[in-house]
Amino acid sequence: MGRKPKTQATQTMTSSRSRRKSPKPKEPATLPFELQTEETAMEPLGEALEEGRSDEESPIVVRSSDAVREALEMVAKMPYPGVGLRTIAGILRGETRANWLSYIARTESWGVFFPNPLPAVENFIRDLIRAGYLEGSHFVRLTERGQRVLENQEPPAVRRRLKLVSRKVRPLLWKLLLLRARLVNERKAPGLFKDEVLLQLLEKQPTTIEELKQIKGIGKFIVQRLGNEIIQIIQSFRNTEKDKGEENS
After folding, report:
1. Between the chain's N and C termini, which has fewer beta carbons within 10 Å?
2. Is residue 28 part of a domain?
3. What residue ranges in the chain does DSSP mark as E strands?
4. 162 DSSP β-pair partners
5. DSSP assignment of 137-200, as one string?
């Protein structure tokens, strides 16, 4: 018996199935990390826009090559044979531990990556190891290639950007971090002085109790127990910055 000829409806259904099964276009391949540069790496639009802001405009800036240099400078100042990856990330993140105090005293990069989660900072350090700027894991050390970056003999090829605390407000951050460390040590409401609160204090820098009350996360307890001390810390910082500006003018 001969085959039954296809009707027009059958041909239409077959054509529809063929169209549904057509392969999806492949996504463009991503360059290996070693071949990515600041120009080829993809970052969120918001960070790219913030990259152009100056330190005077914002206490928090987004940088790529600066982030690499900050991390390398911090590692370069650590004693031989180096310190662990988690310790490096913790110090750059602004963590405070008693056995880290001697390391913290060696660097001005303490807390530079404070706005970023600790896992993001740890991954950034791993990126630097994969790129050949650092070596080791238990004891992380600077490599010859990392030294060339610090000496501006080689531009850093970076994959991601991190948020950085600008150099201008780092002294204020250090004082606020030390205040929080003291609260933890004295067991006086350490959980109320959260990262989000510190970041708002860096940005808004209240100089009166009324302004302090406007900070999200600042409750009555902090205002009553720590309000005057926080105001004094911020006012002292601003007076110091004002004096520096008058000297340079």
Report:
1. N
2. no
3. 60-63, 134-135, 141-142, 162-165
4. 63
5. SSSBEE-HHHHHHHTTSS----S--EEEE-GGGHHHHHHHHHHHHHHHHHTSSGGGS-HHHHHH
pTM of the predicted protein model? 0.75
CA triplet 169, 174, 175: central angle to 5 degrees? 100
* 95 close to 83: Cβ distance less than 8 angstroms: no
| pLDDT digits 0-9 by tens, 220-244 | 888 988 899 999 999 999 998 887 7
The CATH number of whichever domain residue 215 belongs to comes to: 1.10.150.80
- Same domain as 160, residue 47: yes
Which residue is it, tokens 């390398």? 72
User: Domain with 67 in it: what CATH number?
Assistant: 1.10.10.10
Cα distance between residue 169 and residue 208, in whole Å:
19
Tokens of 239: 């007076």
Same-domain check for residues 62 and 100 = yes
Range of the domain at 226: 169-242
